[in-house]
Each structure stands twice: as C-alpha cells, then as structure tokens.
Amino acid sequence: MNALQSALQAALHERDRQHTRRHLVPMERQGGSLLRQGRKLVDVTSNDYLGLADHPLLRQRAADWTERYGTGARASRLVSGTLPLHTQLEEKLARFKKSEAALLFASGWQANASLLPALSHLSRQQTGHPAILFMDRLNHASLHHGCLAAGLRQVRFHHNDLAHLETLLDRHADQKGLKFIITETVFSMDGDRADIPALRALADRHGAFLYVDEAHATAVLGPGGCGLSNGLADITMSTASKALGGMGAFVTGSRALCDYLVNQASGLIYSTALPPACLGALDAALEIVPSLEAERLHLQHQASRLRQRLNDAGWKTGPSSTQIIPVMIGDSETALHVARSLEEKGFLSIAIRPPTVPPGTARLRIALESRLSATTIDQLGDALLDSLRSVTPR
C-alpha cells in the first residue's frame, strides 16, 4: 500500500470512528415507492416535493424532445450548444420568476459556485476592490464554495438574524467594493424561511444587493409556486432538480446580469449546455406548477401536522415552517440508529450528520411530498416516534 492509499484508508477510518462515513446505496423506484436492498419503502427524504419527477407530461416531453433534438446539446452555450429550446425556455423562466431575464445552468451547485467569482470579478473591475459577501452562516455548501473560489473571506451573520446582519453592514459601511447579502429563501437542512422583504429593505438602506438561493422554495411556495423572492431579489438562483422534477438550474434577474454571466460565469462558459430531455421536462413542469395550489396547501398542512405531533411528544424540529422537517437528535451514531429503525418500519429518511450540519446537530431530515396522504403521514408519525423511543427513551 503506497502513501496515498494509506492516507485514504486513514481518512475513511476516521469517518467510521465518528459515524460520519457516507455510502452509496442503489435503489429502484416503483411507482410512489422505493425498493432499497430488497425492502419496499415510502420515500420521505427526497426533494421531489410535488411528485413531478413521475408526472406523465414531464416524461413525455422529455422523451419527445430527445427524439426530435437528440440526447445532448453537444457543446457549450457559447460554441454551438445554444438551441432555440434554451432561449425559449429562458423567456418562460423569466416570466415565472417575475424577472427581465433568465439563464440556464447545469446544476444549482454549478450556478452558485460560478456566480460568486463572477460577481467578485465585477466588483474588482468596476470599483477596484473585492466584493463584500454577507453570508448567512447556514447557507448551502455551494455558496460557501463560491466564496472560496472567488478568493474572498465571507462576512457571516448569525442564521436569519437581521439585527446581526445590520450590525455587520454598519461595520463595513466604509469598505469599498460591491456588497451582496446572500441567503436561501428556504434552508435545506432546517426547513425555515428567510424574511425576504426585510432583507430587501436592509439591502436598500445599506447600498447592498440581494442574492437568494430558491432551490427549496421554487414550485412549492409563493404565488403560483414562483418562490419567495417574488421579484424582490437582485439575483435569484433556482433549481429544476427538486420540486420541478427534473435537472438543471437557472439564474433570474436583469438582462444585464444574465448577459454579464454569459461572459464571466465559468460554470456556463466551460460546460456543455443542458440536453433536450432536461429542457423538455422543465418546460412541462412550468405548465403544470401554477395549477398545483391544492397540492401545495396539502403539503404544507401535512408538514404542520407532523411537526406538531413531534413537538407535542417533546421532539424538537427547529424553526422549520415548510415541507422540510428536521428531527433534531444531536449525536451522529444515535441518528443512524433512528434512521435504521425507521427503515425497518417502511420509511426512508437519511441521517444527516456533520460536516453537512454543524457538530452536535445530527438529525433525520424528513422531506414530505404532496402525494402522501394524511393516513401515510400518521403512519410516518407513529413509526418516527416509535423509532425515536427505541434509542432514546423518554
């Protein structure tokens, strides 16, 4: 065994010791259920919040557009990869998000990780100084990575703490460079929401720009499922890979923003464009989503019922107010035991452990889907409470 293999094995051993090692486990989907290692399970861990990944219209349009236009876009957007499908879909996305323009990316990670370096370059070019990034400390890893890629030290504010953010904005008031407040509208691990109107007002008072990640709000919240940014943010990043049921991401904002990113965002410039199948699925989803108000209301009502039941039994679900419900456990090993026990009872929810979440905050992340009935939610509640009692009696 050479030095590299020894180092790799030692790192994996340390993960095992801390109960934070991850594994890839293949699973099949059979209708609304999962087949994992021979066991049929109800999926309460995915981000397909409206069940659109199984919708016949998305399947059909993805297949139709593949048949008509091929399996790949064949090149980057700036070479020969921009099809009429891309530009037509971007126009629809801009209208959906109440923005002037939209720009497609391959994934939310790619968009966030390449936008922040592009914005930093803009600040240096136009002001002679680096951008100043005010980041919610619980922002997605892709946003933190974007700061690193930009070579910038972020200014972190306490999670959803606008008073702390304002203190930091005051402290940096005389610092030159473009200022960006960066947050998620719905936080992926806690299921809580940012106060976007208040952040907009704060940005305006301090001459800052608002950048929001709408990955877990798009299609699920807001008028017609348009999300929570609702035209208030300067820059909005949304994904097609969650409640929209497909793959890809899109940035919405001004026409100048999107034109600038075409010239500066490395993730777009140096990546092959999204293929027709992804475009077809997203196009179909945009037709369906505005009409799903009953599904959105059902989803949030069932989430509220489950949260209340867990809270009444003494279990903390943090500040969650959405379809994402963290069941706070604390210890990684215990969280793994609870997840295994829940799986034995027919429900799949993965234990989320450090470094995805801060040390001491391991949890089960319950992510509900609108097709789950009230009866299934009650069964999930029974299974959850029984699993929790089995490892941490109360």
TrEMBL record:
Keywords in alphabetical order: Pyridoxal phosphate, Transferase
UniProt key word Transferase: yes
InterPro entries: Aminotransferase_I/II_large (IPR004839), AON_synthase_class-II (IPR050087), PyrdxlP-dep_Trfase (IPR015424), PyrdxlP-dep_Trfase_major (IPR015421), PyrdxlP-dep_Trfase_small (IPR015422)
Cofactor annotation: pyridoxal 5'-phosphate
Boundaries of every Aminotransferase class I/classII large domain copy: 40-383
Official protein name in the record: 8-amino-7-oxononanoate synthase
Source organism per UniProt: Bombella mellum
